[in-house]
Amino acid sequence: MSSLTIHTIKVPNPFFEGRNAVYVIEADPITIIDTGVATEKAWGILVDGLEKIQVPLESIRRIILTHKHIDHIGNAWRIHQRSDAEVFIHESEVRFVQEVDPSSERYAELVASRLDEWSIPAAKRPSRQSKPPPWLIEACPAKPLVDGQELPIGDQAIEVMHTPGHTFGSICLRLENSLFSGDHVLPGISPNIGGGDLRHRGLLSKYLESLERIRGLDRVGLTTLPGHGNPMRDKLAERCDRLISHHDKRLGEVLEILASSGTQTVYEVAEQLFGEMEDFHVILGCAEGQAHLDLLVDREQVTEQDGGYALV
Ligand SMILES: [Zn+2]
Ligand SMILES: [Zn+2]
Q: What are 226-237's pLDDT values in tens digits?
């Protein structure tokens, strides 16, 4: 019999993926996986949730973050401040915890650097006012995780699996019959690939490889605990297959667009994939289009010249 109890606290955020699932593993050391978005409201709900399950904030010893997004790392610093818990994140994303960007300035610069690359028309460029209000976040020390690392808990261990794709440093965590899948595998929605990490190119091929790898963990009795939405029991392979076929279909759509329209910019491809895009969806749509075009270039089905993409 296992001595581990896993609690879930659902924390609201302003994004379309829906509430964040924060997991609390009641074992030695008391471990929390992901922390919700950096707002006063989310923090209040997280603190109430901990009170309900009678896990004092101060008793948390370890915080593991599945990836760098604000709705996952948001409250790590506050928990650390109150409990002195160690904070862990993949080695490639440590700096997003240690050097935070509360007013999203660095992110806005990154977006701006892509507007020309994607050939987004001036009228379609998102306005600066549309950025979120400053996040309630401060820097805190974080320790690096690498693929294959094991973190002891009770008489078990949490195994770290590096699953790049949604972000470059996304990880999944395996513990007994549970797989904490972060935003790598979600029920019902396909995570945006490309828009989740504008610093890296080629994330779609990494994402598909990571899905194949995670799919291999499928077995009877395995419960997938995602970063948003409800647990999925015995559904891992089925869900991975759905996500893989979703991207196969989209790759086919991109090829059809180029076959019928000739050379296209990233923006033109995204517009044909997603229809009229407004505000920040222009960025997400273009990033997703770029990720699919990158993979087709890798497969030598598409060539790129001066920002235009065409069939080989
Ligand atoms: Zn995410
Ligand atoms: Zn998320």
A: 999 999 999 999
Side chain identity at 102, as an amino acid letter?
P
How far apart are the CA of 277 and the centre of ligand 2, in A? 21
Tokens (6 digits) for 289: 């289009």
Integer Cα distance of 265 and 192 in angstroms: 20
| Token pair of 75 as six digits | 């409250």
Q: Containing domain of residue 201, as a range?
A: 5-311
Q: What is the DSSP string of 214-228?
A: HHTT--TT-EEEESB
For the chain, what is the largest distance between any 2 Cα atoms, rounded to a whole number of angstroms? 61
How far apart are alpha carbons 225 and 173 in whole angstroms?
10
State the CATH number of the domain containing residue 277.
3.60.15.10
pLDDT in tens, 102-152: 888 888 888 988 988 999 998 898 876 556 678 999 999 999 999 999 999
Chain center to CA of 297:
24
Instruction: Note the residue count of the chain.
Output: 312
Using an 8 Å Cβ cutoff, are 71 and 183 in contact?
Answer: no
Contacts of 156 by beta carbon, 8 Å cutoff, 6+ apart: 2, 4, 27, 175, 176
* Closest alpha carbon to 216 in 295, 161, 150: 161
3-state SS assignment for residue 233: strand
Number of domains in the chain: 1
3 state DSSP class of 1: coil
User: Which residues are close to ligand 2, an ion, with C-beta < 5 A?
Assistant: 71, 183, 227
Beta-bridge partner residues of 158: 151
Ligand nearest to the CA of 16: 2
The CA R_g of the chain, rounded to the nearest whole Å, is: 20
- Specify burial of residue 8 (Cβ count, 10 A radius: 0-12, 13-18, 19+): middle
For residue 160, the number of C-alpha atoms closer than 13 Å in the C-beta half-sphere is 23
Q: Which residues hold their Cβ within 5 A of ligand 1, which is an ion? A: 69, 183
Ligand showing the shortest atom-to-Cα distance for residue 68: 1
Task: Report if pTM > 0.90.
Answer: yes
